[in-house]
Design goal:
By secondary structure, the protein is an alpha/beta fold. It has 7 helices and 17 strands. The strands form 3 sheets. It has a 9-stranded mixed sheet, with helices on one face. Helix 6 (about 310-320) packs across helix 7. The radius of gyration is 21 Å and the shape is globular. The model is unreliable at about 1-5 (pLDDT under 50).
Length: about 350
């Protein structure tokens, strides 16, 4: 497939969403400094190569920058069965304080009634199945759950990094504005921001606002059905404070753009708009944004480079246009950009043609 040509490409088929990434281009570690990562600016007619610290030059004083302040939890628990065999529990979301939905490995061995020893101070009891291959588990510790996870849990780094968590990840796999615990993966577009970049944006009069979308494990899951429409999205929790809804309305009134920092912010704002809750609210969404989607809120986007056949790539193409998006990816590959969670970024200052 020529990534710069969309004519004759059937976007309803998953093979339209492939691209070739040369070996060694997946960023396994972050840039030395967050804002020194590269930034590909995707204009209407041309592509421009910058560094991320130049982002304030793209954002206008009448604009609004919306970020996702969800914080990644250390929910990857490595332990042993009573037999001594190694196993793993990935916590997904709390049902109650100590009762969680989880994924376990090996699933065939960790049936309801089994127990996993994470440490002397933390055990996981398998309570029940969830009907989709997951488990309902209970955390048993004398410590509060948050303390137990911080002490014995690990950050669930994406599998394509092919390494275990290291001390630097505790800082760098979180955004500088992360505040609300709940994600199992970082909202990666925000990883490039430094306090200095945010201060420069605000100093020119640009307002910032915050939402929460807790990222689930489905963010790493490629579309495995031949037909794109057959793919099922996982539900994720979101929240929009009333002040963010008010800021969006004020931005619209003065003719400014709403910038979404990351696909998670796009899904939050557009899902809330569809549900009539943009002025403030909370809920869950399984919104699948792909070409043909009608955007109601987001005017500009900052995002990372996403996996082939991923719903995130499809969302970006829905926003910018398929040909424009794939041309940008082709240029990023040619220009030796770094890809995925710890990789470089792209900025799309205006939506493409519907």
């Amino acid at each position: 497939m020529n990534p710069e040509a969309g004519v004759g490409v059937d976007l309803s088929r998953v093979e339209a969403w492939d691209y070739t990434l040369p070996e060694g281009r997946i960023a396994r570690y972050p840039a030395a400094r967050r804002d020194e990562s590269r930034l590909l600016v995707v204009g209407e007619e041309e592509l421009e190569h910058r560094t991320f610290k130049s982002l304030p030059e793209l954002v206008g004083p009448d604009d609004l920058l919306v970020v996702n302040e969800s914080r990644v939890l250390p929910v990857r628990l490595l332990g042993r069965k009573p037999t001594g065999a190694r196993c793993e529990v990935l916590l997904l979301r709390p049902v109650e304080d100590r009762l969680w939905e989880a994924l376990v490995r090996p699933g065939s061995k960790l049936k309801p009634g089994r127990e996993v020893r994470i440490s002397d101070g933390l055990r996981v009891h398998i309570v029940d199945g969830t009907g989709d291959g997951g488990r309902l588990v209970r955390l048993e510790s004398e410590l509060p759950v948050s303390e137990a996870l911080e002490r014995w849990g690990r950050l669930p780094l994406p599998p394509y990094m092919e390494r275990e968590e290291e001390p630097l990840d505790r800082e760098r796999y979180q955004t500088v504005y992360a505040r609300v615990p709940g994600s199992v993966a970082a909202p990666t577009a925000g990883l490039h921001f430094t306090p200095e970049v945010l201060e420069a944006i605000e100093a020119q009069g640009t307002r910032t606002a915050r939402v929460v979308l807790h990222v689930g494990p489905g963010t790493f899951r490629p579309v495995e059905t031949d037909a794109v429409d057959a793919h099922l999205m996982h539900r994720e929790r979101w929240e929009i404070p009333p002040e963010t809804g008010a800021a969006i309305c004020e931005t619209r009134a003065r003719g400014g753009r709403v910038w979404a920092v990351g696909t998670t912010v796009v899904r939050t704002l557009e899902a809330a708009a569809l549900e009539g809750a943009l002025e403030g609210g909370a809920g869950e969404t399984d919104l699948f944004i792909r070409p043909g989607f009608h955007f109601q809120v987001v005017d500009a986007l900052v995002t990372n480079f996403h996996l082939p056949r991923s719903t995130l790539l499809m969302l970006v193409a829905a926003f910018a246009g398929y040909e424009r998006t794939m041309a940008a990816y082709h240029e990023a590959v040619r220009g030796e950009y770094r890809f995925y969670s710890y990789g470089d970024a792209m900025a799309i200052p205006a939506r493409g043609a519907p």
